[in-house]
Amino acid sequence: MKKLGSCCCGETEIEITGEPALNGICNCNNCKKRTGSAFGMSAYFHQDKFQLLKNTTNTYEFEGEHGKQVRHFCGKCGTTIFWYVEIFKGLVGVAGGCFTDKPLPLPNFNAMMENQCSWIKFPESMNKPLTAQDVVNA
Ligand SMILES: [Zn+2]
Ligand SMILES: [Zn+2]
Predict the structure, then answer these.
(1) Where residue 19 sits, what CATH number does that domain have?
(2) For a designed S-S bond to 60, which of 34, 68, 71, 87 qualifies (C-beta 3.0 to 4.6 A apart)?
(3) Strand extents, DSSP E, the chain
(4) Distance in Å, CA 57 to ligand 1 centroid
């Protein structure tokens, strides 16, 4: 099953095959700022399941809590669409909100719950933190 994802202006397009290896919510301050929202929806796919169809991205690189990160955002409209994190080897992170036609399934982890906005209530099944073992097994 393939899904198309795109930025706000449509100049950047990606395609993924199958379901994410990791599919979660993150409440860290970096995800809040990246999305301009209350949390980030971060889905991680094995790199061979990911294809960049139309690339107009610029990149932002920084050294974060999980090592070096390279974030790709549309060079025209600025939407963050995918990224690479050093410790998530072999995986590409994708902004969950870019799949508007065929949304991703219910997330199955909730990272940085201690930083979650007090007014958010996720389904009980999502209230599982991401562990290092989840990343290794992804
Ligand atoms: Zn765009
Ligand atoms: Zn985060």
Answers:
(1) 2.170.150.70
(2) 71
(3) 2-6, 13-17, 22-26, 40-46, 50-54, 57-64, 67-74, 80-85, 91-95, 109-111
(4) 8
Residues facing residue 91 across a β-bridge: 46
CA distance linking residue 75 with residue 116, whole number of Å: 30
How far does the centroid of ligand 2 lie from the alpha carbon of residue 39, in Å? Answer: 8
Least confident of 1-5, 24-28, 36-40, 133-137: 133-137
- Which ligand has the nearest atom to the CA of 33? 2
CA of 136 to the centre of ligand 1 (A): 32
In the structure, what pLDDT confidence band is assigned to residue 56 with cuts at 50, 70 and 90?
very high
Q: Is 132 inside any structural domain?
A: no
Domain count, the chain: 1
Looking at the CA of 27, name the nearest ligand. Answer: 2
124 found inside a domain? no
Does 34 map to a domain? no
The pLDDT value given to residue 132:
84
Question: Ligand 1 centroid to 124 CA: how many Å?
Answer: 34
Query: Looking at the domain assignment, is residue 51 inside a domain?
Result: yes
